[in-house]
Amino acid sequence: MGPRWSSGVGFDGPGGAYPHDQGVPSPRVGSGYLPQSSAGQVYGTPASQPGPEEPRRSPAPAPRSAPPAVSSAPIPVSAAPAAAAGPSAPTSGGPVAPAGPTFGPSSVALDADEHVSRETPGQDEDDPPLAMEALRAVQILNPSGEITMPRPDHPRVLCVANQKGGVGKTTTTVNLAVALALHGNRVLVVDLDPQGNASTGLNVPHHAGIPDVYDCLIDNVPLSEVAQPVEGIPNLYCVPATIDLAGAEIELVSVVARESRLARAIAAHPEKFDYVFIDCPPSLGLLTVNALCAAQEVLIPIQCEYYALEGLNQLINNINLVRQHLNPTLDVSTILLTMYDRRTRLADAVEQDVRNHFGTKVLNAVIPRNVRVSEAPSYGQSVMTYDPGSRGATSYFEAALEIAMRGVSTGGTA
Q: How many other C-beta atoms can be found within 10 angstroms of the C-beta atom of residue 152?
């Protein structure tokens, strides 16, 4: 498909030419096309080709206070980055380069106040956006395995909890786990939500009849017999959740030491993991209490909206009760702001309130609203593998790196 011309430019007839007096854009410097004033033709019509004794020349620029220093050496085709562009691109306002095998002058001393087109890449400009996105994708996917995140000196068990639904608990669990596993850490994800969304995001089977975390809680099945390796992600395992887990809350009521069933199952696992992420349901029932008893740290995702803050006090109070009576080592170590929309003042206000209240526990990395994050589960992937160059993947990668660095700097607890 040829170049798109501006509105109002039409054909004179079958095989006709574009009229030159209706706003046809000037060609890019070095494109090989000349305007009518210098080549004696309109776009699309042939013109007489000059002989060897009459090389084409561009019109002389307007006189300046200091004439430009021109070098007569020609530039090869490979050295002119603007030559690949079509005739539809506008020029920067400078003279048009001559057509033919020889391009314009190799070096021109520009005045200090002369405008330079941003279309021409310079040494001081950043890389193109596509190149930066590809660089981020390679860094996140880490195909060579050379990039590693620091590993903690002891297993870190993190409970991802918030009694409000839709704040990004499962998305945070899946993407942080994948980011850490892709960079040299052994990670286990325990899906403790009866909806099984974490299992879906990691593409782990969790239909009825699959051994799941319910068997560990109710029938004391070893966790090693239930955990499944995640396809395509080395060092990442997942304990799936099926619909059977929905009845575990009722069945656990009459079980002895019902609050510590999951903690014993994790402690009895023969392999030691660097990170264990427990994805909690959006409630404060027995399943969430089991997760709080099994964890050493609590990671709370907070959506940047008012409703997410409304029930935060109740969650903190319940965590304090578990710390006082069941798990004295439990600590709210990490707060992650999710679904941040920088276009709204509300998001900024929520961020400031959370940072003022929790201080350094809030990660510097903030997860923005990104459609790629929402699309990834429909393909059975995390956003880290679905679109590693997206803003969502980059933000979760930064959050995972910050969690890993905090754990090392504080001796294993962020």
A: 18
Residue 54 corresponds to which tokens in the numbers above? 């009459």
What type of residue is 398?
A: E
Distance, CA of 103 to CA of 85 (rounded, Å): 14
Q: How far apart are CA 20 and CA 22, in angstroms?
A: 6
Distance CA 34, CA 107 (A): 21
At a CB cut-off of 8 Å and minimum separation 6, what does 105 contact? 70, 71, 72, 73, 75
pLDDT digits (tens, 9 = 90+) for 245-302: 888 888 888 888 888 999 999 999 888 899 999 999 998 889 999 999 999 999 999 9
Task: Say how far apart CA 197 and CA 346 lie, in whole Å.
Answer: 29
Q: Which amino acid is at 242?
A: T
Identity at 271, one-letter amino acid code: E
Give strand pairing partners of 191.
279
pLDDT at residue 80 above 80?
Answer: no
Task: Determine the pLDDT at residue 63.
Answer: 53
Are the beta carbons of 412 and 153 closer than 8 angstroms? yes
CA gap 269, 12 in Å, rounded:
80
> 228-229 and 236-239 as β-strands: parallel, antiparallel, unpaired?
antiparallel
Dihedral over alpha carbons 225, 226, 231, 233 (to 10 degrees): -90
